[in-house]
Automatic annotation (TrEMBL):
This is histidine kinase. It comes from the Bacteria. Signal peptide: none annotated. Residues 177-394 form the Histidine kinase domain. Its EC number is 2.7.13.3. One of its GO terms (molecular function) is kinase activity. It catalyses: ATP + protein L-histidine = ADP + protein N-phospho-L-histidine.
């Protein structure tokens, strides 16, 4: 069990390292999704990435879908395989025969999924589906595996491109900083030289010595600047990811989950004009896992609220993330388990399967950013509140 837990956490971290924004990928993989369906001869093909709670469809062909609870997903079982998973008749499989996508439109019967492997972990799947049985030849299966490898390669390439873009921004920002910082000392040297030249022979020794000291001081400033460049100490500030941008992303990604369970989800932010220097992907992972967890434990007709706030300070401001629900609440013993990182998976209010990795992942991410997480709940009063505080540097 410990080995399985370790492997799942490793898998989630491998997915997180790709820094994927699930809402921005449809156009990047549409050609591969279409090609997979063409190769397999199926009506539908999906490219899915699976986190602690959700299967995110980053590209699809033949079926309009953006996300699915992980417990309802066939691909949840595929990422546990080394090679692939093939199911010839979903209606005869007890795990899936009662799912809406089998009993109702599109009345799926055939499924084949191939794991997408990154850093030795299965982070998602390339799958093909059809209402009819579609036996695939070994040659077609190999072609689908090649397409799956191309999906992963493209994911890594896109991350590398984003890193190069950021490095170019850093270089541009560094050039501006160098130009700005050099102008002062150089201007001082030129000004002193022009003054000495203008005075000609009228400058006395004491004045010359004083001028030379000023020139030396300006020269030393330039040397320090050169040392900074050679030791790569100069860098442009990161492009800020504002609270308003985070608020918009969270609504886009998690409002469908809440609506699917008839839960009201509200997200509000108060930025105060302070930019964030915390990594966008980590913020999305922290908030997303907590929101999914809150939705899981909130009954139908309930409410989940998210507050994003920055408490400004002179040197190091604090970001506050507060996620509240009106579910059944958490006992003191469960809060202690969460704090110790030993929380066990439990079933959601509508029977959702728990996998037990969302909160440990949040704790690990929060700790890596130098923050902390607090949980407050009273089972008698109902509801729970998770509060994350993160240090941020002012833009």
């Amino acid at each position: 069990m410990q080995h399985a837990t370790s492997k799942e956490m490793e898998r989630l971290l491998a997915l997180m390292e790709l820094e994927i924004d699930y809402s921005d990928f449809q156009n990047h993989f549409s050609d591969l999704a279409r090609l997979a369906a063409k190769v397999a001869g199926t009506d539908i093909s999906l490219i899915n990435l699976i986190d602690a709670y959700t299967q995110w469809t980053v590209s699809s062909h033949g079926l309009k879908i953006e996300q699915l609870p992980r417990e309802d997903s066939i691909c949840h079982y595929t990422i546990q395989q080394e090679q692939y998973l093939e199911i010839n008749d979903l209606t005869a499989d007890d795990r899936f025969s009662d799912k809406d996508y089998v009993k109702e439109e599109p009345h799926l019967s055939y499924y084949l999924g191939i794991p997408l492997q990154a850093s030795g972990c299965n982070i998602g799947t390339l799958c093909v589906l059809d209402p009819q049985h579609k036996p695939l030849s070994p040659e077609k299966l190999e072609l689908l595996k090649i397409i799956a490898e191309e999906v992963v390669q493209r994911l890594q390439t896109m991350k590398d491109i984003d890193m190069l873009k950021q490095q170019l921004k850093d270089i541009s920002g560094a050039q501006l900083k160098v130009a700005h910082d050099i102008r002062g000392p150089l201007g001082g040297i030129i000004g002193i030289a022009e003054y000495i030249h203008a005075q000609g022979g009228n400058t006395n020794t004491e004045e010359i010595i004083e001028m030379m000291q000023l020139i030396a001081s300006s020269g030393n400033s330039l040397l320090e600047m050169a040392d900074d460049i050679l030791s790569r100490k100069i860098a442009a500030p990161e492009e800020p990811f504002t609270l308003q941008m985070l608020e918009s992303k969270l609504i886009q990604l998690y409002l469908p989950q809440a609506r699917n369970k008839n839960i009201t989800l509200t997200v509000s932010s108060a930025d105060n004009g302070t930019g964030l220097l915390t990594l966008k992907n980590k913020l999305l992972q922290i908030c997303g896992n907590l929101i999914s967890n809150a939705i899981k434990f909130t009954p139908q007709g309930g409410a989940v609220s998210v507050l994003l706030h920055i408490v400004p300070a002179e040197h190091e401001s604090t970001m506050l993330i507060q996620i509240s629900d009106n579910g059944p609440g958490i006992s003191p013993a469960q809060i202690e388990q969460i704090a110790s990182g030993k929380a066990e998976s439990t079933t959601g209010t509508s029977g959702e399967t728990g996998f037990g990795f969302g909160l440990p992942l949040v704790q690990q991410l929060v700790a890596s950013l130098g923050g902390n997480m607090q949980v407050v709940s009273d089972p008698e009063q109902k509801g729970a509140q998770f509060t994350i505080t993160l240090p941020i540097h002012k833009q």
